[in-house]
Specification:
Pfam families: Esterase. InterPro entries: AB_hydrolase_fold, Esterase-like, Ig-like_fold, Ig_E-set, Mycobacterial_A85_antigen. It comes from Natronoflexus pectinivorans. By secondary structure, this protein is of the alpha+beta class. It folds into two domains: 96 residues, Immunoglobulin-like (Sandwich), CATH 2.60.40.10; 233 residues, Alpha/Beta hydrolase fold, catalytic domain (Rossmann fold, 3-Layer(aba) Sandwich), CATH 3.40.50.1820. An eight-stranded mixed sheet has the order 12-13-15-14-16-17-18-19, with helices on both faces.
Length: 369
């Protein structure tokens, strides 16, 4: 055995021994993630929620896995293959990247998602409730990619529109609409891809747990605001796009019930901030408000919202659930129909928001004929 191989064995022993000596022995049941590129064996996830990545970079001096705000060193073998693992991650979807000699790059084994202000890698850490967004053998709706004219911005803007399975068949029927917003450093692809909003809706409708309705997802124009200065964001340009341009376009090109009583708005994180601002500025447009991990309403906020049917507030259990509970309690005492939901074991992440949509949808439009 040559000196190089001996050194490699020592290095690998040290790498895995750290976990063992700290009581964090890894369970070696890693499996390819469901979020991988077809045919890719890496990245992988084990039953503890650890993420294992592997990449060929024979000329690199160091490679790291960057996930959850923490960087983990990878170890190179004699063939120039780097491998390493993270600590256990929360269940659900996580953005991540590889750092090769200081350059942050996507992992070629992962599908690409737009998040963290870039197209890059994402990984699904399995949970017990993945069936809520699974691609099941049920009737599926259609996800339409549309471009609508925006005079205020001078361009055609993109949106994704989900129509329920019955939309194509029941051609004489019109539907209510949910306008659903993404978060900071995400875009209109985020809810359909990592949020899997269309599959969540398909599965709920198939079980009879939610009424069929249309879901519209567009870019919130929020990523130009500097991180840390979110409160400086000017809602007026997007409010104009949404209310004066997108909603009329959707009402003209899809079979909607174009009334306040049949319209809802929801958003996650920064999209919840947008939702709160727009619903407070224009109480005449929506009748159902939902904030996922992004603020609260007070009874004073809603005193002039005569046609308000529902306030839904949610967050992860690792966020600030007590704030949600306090707000909903005050709203209920003031006579509002308010609902809270806390996603157990998750933080400010997409599984919190998938679960939130899954909980919200059955409350929407269920009072309508």
């Amino acid at each position: 055995m040559n000196i190089f191989k001996i050194a490699l064995i020592i290095l690998l022993s040290f790498h895995f021994g750290i976990a063992q000596s700290s009581g964090l022995t890894m369970v070696e049941d890693f499996q390819p993630a469901i979020s991988n590129q077809p045919g890719s064996d890496f990245p992988q996830v084990n039953s503890e929620g650890r993420v294992r990545v592997q990449i060929s970079a024979p000329d690199a001096n160091y490679v790291q896995l960057d996930i959850g705000g923490v960087k983990y060193d990878l170890v190179k073998d004699e063939n120039g293959i780097w491998t390493g693992e993270s600590e256990p991650q929360d269940v659900g979807f996580h953005y991540y990247q590889l750092n090769i000699d200081g350059a942050s790059v996507p992992d070629p084994g992962s599908r690409f998602f737009f998040g963290a202000c870039r197209y890059g890698s994402g990984i699904e850490v399995p949970s017990d409730d993945m069936d809520i967004f699974a691609n099941k053998n049920v009737p599926h709706g259609h996800l339409h990619e549309i471009y609508f004219p925006s005079q205020s911005t001078g361009v055609s803007r993109r949106a994704f529109v989900y129509t329920p399975p019955c939309y194509q068949k029941e051609t004489s029927k019109s539907y209510p609409v949910l306008y659903l917003q993404h978060g900071y450093c995400e875009n209109e692809t985020s809810w359909p891809k990592q949020g899997r909003a269309n599959f969540i809706m398909d599965n709920l409708i198939a079980k009879g747990k939610a009424k069929p309705f249309i879901v519209v997802m567009t870019y919130g124009m929020i990523n130009d605001v500097e991180f840390g200065r979110i409160m400086d964001f000017d809602i007026e340009p997007f409010q104009t796009v949404l209310i004066d341009e997108l909603i009329p376009y959707v009402d003209s090109n899809f079979r909607t019930v174009g009334k306040q009583s049949h319209r809802a708005m929801a958003g996650l994180s920064m999209g919840a901030f947008e939702t709160r601002l727009i619903t407070l500025n224009r109480p005449d447009v929506f009748s159902y408000y939902a904030l996922f991990s992004g603020g609260i309403y007070t009874p004073e906020d809603l005193k002039d919202h005569e046609n308000l049917k529902l306030v839904f507030l949610s967050c992860g259990s690792k966020e600030r659930p007590e704030r949600i509970a306090t707000s909903v309690k005050a709203l209920k005492e003031a006579g509002y129909n308010a609902v809270s939901y806390v996603s157990e074991g998750t933080a400010h992440e997409f599984h919190t928001w998938r679960r939130s949509l899954h909980q919200l949808a059955p409350f929407l439009f269920n009072d309508l004929d």
